[in-house]
Specification:
The protein has eight helices and 19 strands. It folds into three domains: about 80 residues, RNA polymerase II/Efflux pump adaptor protein, barrel-sandwich hybrid domain (OB fold (Dihydrolipoamide Acetyltransferase, E2P)); about 50 residues, E3-binding domain (Dihydrolipoamide Transferase); about 210 residues, Chloramphenicol acetyltransferase-like domain (Chloramphenicol Acetyltransferase, 2-Layer Sandwich), CATH 3.30.559. The relative contact order is 0.16. About 25% of the residues lie in helices and about 25% in strands. The strands form five sheets. Strands 9, 12, 15, 16, 17, 18 and 19 form a seven-stranded mixed β-sheet that branches. A four-stranded antiparallel β-sheet has the order 1-8-6-3, with no helix packed on it. Strands 5-4-2-7 form a four-stranded antiparallel β-sheet, with helices on one face. With about 400 residues, the chain is an alpha+beta fold. α1 packs parallel to α2 and α5 crosses α6.
Length: about 400
């Protein structure tokens, strides 16, 4: 038997509210299955299980708020043997909010689908948690279509509809999301000795390469510069493990895996930086597909616990907002944040002549307890080298 615990979805999370079970005693579960919904300051999060087995018992009732680490359920081992050593396997545990801004990719997201009202006498299929939230927030269940089995409306469906309305405040004039961001950033600036570097990169070759690559592709399959930047950063990090990991319990723990957290704005306000797992191992097309999927789901209010707990470094961009330079605040307990500005046409010396070139400014905010300016500068130079050869990524 193994206990399934209330997960930590961020360094500043002390407790969570269990709002819905998606399994029952006797249900068979596999690693990666979503078995519960937990509400935090940023909304409803789908919680995954990290083992195979059978649900033996549920220990916490929906609606209960319990501290991180509280046993929520007991899961019998799938093979009938000894229990697995841990109920979760996050690489790292950064907080669930992001210090900076939306990523370079921002595909259009459709609003929550509206379904036709049920026929007279029909009862809307919805989970008890969904009904309770709908009643409390005056959301019309008949106007929603559900994502559950057989079209049943789940808590997360109501939460997405609710998030389209006015932000809920914490009683002090701040939204819960903004309060969480403030707490994490205050902690970061209080505890982490930041140093900052910037480097201007000629990306004319990248722009030309992308244009050629996309010439024969339909719009849905085209690569965008943001995906290429993420891949180049991830590959560059292979040589600089001191920028990829977490600082906890007074020591640094580098991560072998490179899970880039891409900062994405949430519809209705707030930010998160969910992980693109093993970014350096993915093809450019795979990075592009993951980024589109993440952006769509986050802005629809749907993301998973592993996407919030696993990032080993954060990348953010204000380029889409017209900003040329940003210096971010590190996302604790991570130790580095890479910022990207907009691509600008600038005069640039090439082979002794001044020519117009496409240039982007990359910045690094890093933890001086773990690395220094020399290593940070070498990382930015390595990133530059990779961007000069996009075909090799």
């Amino acid at each position: 038997m193994t206990e399934f615990l209330m997960p930590s979805l961020g360094a500043d999370m002390e407790a969570g509210t269990l709002v819905e079970w998606l399994v029952q005693p006797g249900s068979t579960v596999n690693r990666g299955d979503i078995i519960a919904v937990v509400e935090t300051q940023k909304g409803a999060i789908e919680i995954e299980v990290f083992q195979n087995g059978t649900v033996d018992s549920l220990l916490v009732d929906p609606g209960s708020t319990v501290p991180v680490g509280t046993p929520l359920a007991v899961i019998a081992d799938g093979a009938g043997g000894a229990p697995e050593p841990s109920t979760v396997e996050p690489t790292v545990a950064p907080p669930p909010i992001a210090p900076v801004v939306s990523p370079p990719i921002a595909p259009a997201v459709s609003p929550v689908t509206v379904a036709a009202p049920p026929a007279r006498g029909d009862r809307v299929r919805a989970s008890p948690a969904a009904r309770k939230l709908a009643a409390a927030t005056q959301v019309d269940l008949a106007a929603l279509s559900g994502s559950g089995a057989g079209g049943a409306i789940l808590y997360t469906d109501v939460e997405r509809a609710r998030q389209r309305g006015p932000d809920q405040t914490d009683g002090g004039g701040m939204t819960a999301m903004r309060s969480a961001i403030a707490a994490a950033m205050a902690r970061s600036k209080r505890e982490i000795p930041h140093y900052y570097l910037e480097h201007q990169i000629d990306v004319t070759g990248v722009q030309d390469w992308l244009t050629a690559m996309n010439a024969e592709r339909p719009p849905a399959d085209r690569l965008l510069g943001g995906a290429l930047h993420l891949k180049a950063i991830a590959v560059a990090l292979r040589k600089f493990p001191e920028l990829n990991g977490v600082f906890e319990d007074r020591r640094f723990r580098p991560s072998v895996a490179i899970h880039v957290g891409a900062a994405i704005s949430i519809r209705g306000g707030g930010l998160v930086a969910p992980a693109i797992h093993d970014t350096d191992q993915l093809s450019l097309d795979q990075v592009m597909a993951r980024l589109r999927d993440l952006t769509k789901r986050v802005r629809a209010g749907r993301f998973r616990s592993s996407e919030l707990t696993d990032p080993t470094v954060t990348v953010s961009s204000l380029g889409e907002r017209g900003v040329g330079l940003l210096f971010g605040v590190i996302y604790p307990p991570q130790v580095a944040l890479i910022g990207l500005g907009r691509v600008e046409e600038r005069p640039w010396v090439v082979d002794g002549a001044v020519r117009p070139r496409a240039v982007i400014t990359a910045t690094l905010a890093a933890d001086h307890r773990v690395s220094d300016g020399h290593r940070g500068a070498l990382f930015l130079r390595k990133l530059d080298e990779h961007l000069q050869h996009p075909e090799a990524l």
